[in-house]
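Exercise 3.2. Students should predict the tertiary structure of the chain below and write it as structure tokens, then compare their answer with the key that follows.

Predict this chain's 3D structure.
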Amino acid sequence: MLSAHDLRFSYGRRRKVDVLTDFSWGVAAGKTTLLLGPNGAGKSTLHKLLSGFERPQRGAVTINGRSDRESLYRKVGWMPQEVQPARGLTVAEQVEYVAWLGGASSREARRRSATALEAVDLMDKHDVRADRVSGGQLRRVGLAQALVRNAPVLLLDEPTAGLDPAQALNFLSLLRGLDCPGGIVISTHQVSDLAEDVDRITVLADGVLRFDDDVAAFRQLGAGTEGAGSSLAQVFASMIGGGTH
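Answer key:
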């Protein structure tokens, strides 16, 4: 179980901007959660905190009751919104390096890299320099980096950002085949992108949870007298203030 407990996180020194304040939430084990929120809602910050990349200024993130960074690194796979190619490394070497950082031996890192690249259909690019693949392929490199840790929890930050429709469909088909017993969290601000492929929807706006329940409950919000026939996007927009946040 990956959980956030009373988190506080702010940016800036002189003029602090609070991103999360007294924030608590848990990843649903064995389920895929769609983390919705407008730009600037705190989604990426939450991903960084849950993965151990950032440390909260107050509160704690725990995985099975442990809050040390090593436990988070080993048990949480994270795909950031911006996937950066490592200068001078091939696709396979970049994924191997991430596995090695996660504690794998050099031999094990090579084995895991091959497995992860096969899972994302990139074996034909394994010896191509990472800075020479297409944008869609680089997104898949990012997914391979998250998978190579063999972590029970997977966090994906805007995984379809920058992909054309065909690439996005291929990417989503890869996600459907993943087995993560600790849960998968996919963040986006486009509710229609993934709603059919998830079990749970969580809405985050201004660092506050606005909704956290299954997809059926979210759809039901648009089925009232006034909102009959409302699309998921309209329900989401009304929940976050219709774009006035």
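Discussion points: The radius of gyration is 18 Å. The chain is about 35% helix and 25% strand.
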